[in-house]
Amino acid sequence: MSTSESLLALLEPEPAYGYTLKHQYDRWFGRKRPLAFGQVYSTLSRLERNGLVHQSLVEAGQGPERRLYEITPDGVTAIDSWVGTPQTPDLFATSTLYARLTVALLSGRDATQVLAGQREVHLGRMRELQALRRAASGPELLAVTYELAHLDADLKWIEQSGARLGGMAADLDGAVRDA
After folding, report:
1. What span, in angstroms and rounded, lies between the C-alpha atoms of 117 and 16?
2. Whole-number Cα distances in Å, 159 to 13, 82, 120, 145
């Protein structure tokens, strides 16, 4: 996910301070990976340098200056473009799960154990999400159901891959010898 575009979009309804943006980002987009304050301010600095935001107010206080950021018309155009541009479908073409399974097969490690461990972790996360889904609404419901759908697709892949392991190991063994 793009941190820059997400922070920029959070500024569209109204100007905000970096502190406020960090908390809004964490609420809507950082459920599993909250954003560091340093990343917020470095991103805002880059957005300002690129003319997508500007500081509309700087307040001196006891600590560091508080800077109120506001989106520019070019920033709104950038958000329109980002939201309206479809994501490339190859996002999931290279996952660490696929890589770990392939390494297990290439190295003679137990690929069945890799799949079994991942299946258990996926099912645990799905149980957590099912509980969250019962109380979720709005964007949180979208996030939960999105993650559930991807976990479900991963589980199907895990099951299909498990059924093919014997043939895969033989195919990979031959490919390694030929290389």
Report:
1. 43
2. 45, 35, 12, 21
Q: Which helix (H) or strand (E) holds 147?
A: helix 138-178
Place of tokens 């059924």: 163
Q: What is the DSSP string of 69-126?
A: EEE-HHHHHHHHHHHHSPPPGGGGSS-HHHHHHHHHHHHT--HHHHHHHHHHHHHHHH
Query: Is-above-0.85 flag for pTM?
Result: no
Q: How many angstroms separate the CA atoms of 140 and 71, rounded? A: 25
Average pLDDT for consecutive 10-residue bins of the chain (179 residues)? 85 92 87 84 95 86 82 94 75 71 81 90 92 90 91 91 78 56
Domains belonging to the chain, first-starting first, are 3-84 (1.10.10.10), 89-178 (no CATH)
